[in-house]
Amino acid sequence: MADILHLSTFLHRPIFDSDGDRIGRVQDLVARLGDDAHPPIVGAVIKIEGRNLFVPIRKIGGLAEGRMTFEGRRVDLRRFERRPGELLLAEDLLARHLINLVRGRLIIANEIEIAEIDAKWEVVGVDPGRRPFLRRVLGQKIGQRVKAEAIVDFASIEPFVAHVPSARLRIPYRKLAKLHPAQIADLVEQASHEEGEEIIEAVGLDRELEADVFEELDTEHQLEFLEARSDTEAARLLSRMEPDNAADLINEVEQDRRLPILENLPSDQQTKVRQLLSYNAESAGGLMNPDFVYVPATATVDDALEAIRTSKVPAESLHVVFVLDDKGQPIGAASIAPLVRARGSELALSVSQTQIAHVHPHWDLHRIARKMSDFNLTVLPVLDDEHESMIGVITVDDLLEELLPQGWRREFGMSAVEE
Fold first, then answer.
1. Span 231-275, pLDDT tens digits
2. Domain boundary assignment for the chain
3. pLDDT tier at 22 (50, 70, 90 boundaries)?
4. Total Cβ atoms within 10 A of residue 154
5. pLDDT of residue 292
6. Beta-strand (E) ranges in 133-223?
7. What is the residue-wise DSSP string for 89-107?
8. 294-401: CATH architecture
9. CATH number, domain 173-282, options 2.60.40.10, 1.10.287.130, 2.70.180.20, 1.25.60.10
10. What pTM value is reported for the model?
11. In Å, what is the CA distance from 80 to each residue of 3, 340, 382?
12. How far apart are CA 122 and CA 89, in angstroms?
């Protein structure tokens, strides 16, 4: 296995000519971002007589020995200017946040690791530990080489590059999309505002994912990102959120923006959100989602399963299909397991629970929690006060989110930043 060397081995150290005379000092190494798992090093920035110059990697020797030498005939005296797609390892990556895509965490690049692979120098990883931080800050010589298992493979890392003036690349959506929306939201919350905007911009290529991530953010960050958006842009984002989450967020924005955002929502979404806004946010009416899966009393098991397959309601609401009578009252609740086990021609009502626990819009969180706990429910129907129709459902995840304190992930040591 190739020896892995620290970037700090070369930073601010002399570079020598072929006769062993010092000709300048190393300021940084330059790598090129692209499709390579390990970005190739294309050269170094050298300071000679107060001027930063670029030396291509083909004219550099001695790296393997931890010492840099100039092996060309002459130095190009034009001042260094980075090209699109190039990163300065120290300036752009060292001591900055990076995304560990495997674990869905932020790490701090306390050291950048390079290695020669197949006669080509590459950025192979970063060391987020405290040891390289101490070596870098205190100037301690704690070894030039490091064991491969001590670093995070750069192939699993994505850097933030919005701060790089010439960068054409941004965080690839396809990589972030492999993470759960809650993981992406954790990254946004732990990142700086600029880094968070870069993540939101990346997931914005998929409007549905953007909305899912936005729903997972805490209120403080939701408002922070909405502040920079117009009323029309805010409404576009809220239109893809679940109605209950959109209503909660509209309640939190500045009062003079609430009506303009609401009026920019599509009519169907606007009707649902207005209904939810008429309830106390901490009541069953404010917590419920007006979208749920239901079939008529004449529906078969096949009909119920098809309703699940074609429904656009959140996945957590798909565990139960409600059977409604002509007045919209629930007369049965069929879980997925009994439906899958039954014959397709059977009536869905025949495999449903007919004694249905429910709540009413004015019920508070504790009464809702007791009802769900007593009946071991993950989806709870909400009936209007007159018991005439079913107007929504409450899912256990939404209830837990309300009952848990703000910032509970951080309070219980689930920080998304690794050092």
1. 999 999 999 999 999 999 999 999 999 999 999 999 999 999 999
2. 4-159, 173-282, 294-401
3. very high
4. 24
5. 95
6. 152-153, 157-159
7. IIIIITTSEEEETTTTEEE
8. Roll (3.10)
9. 1.25.60.10
10. 0.75
11. 29, 66, 66
12. 11
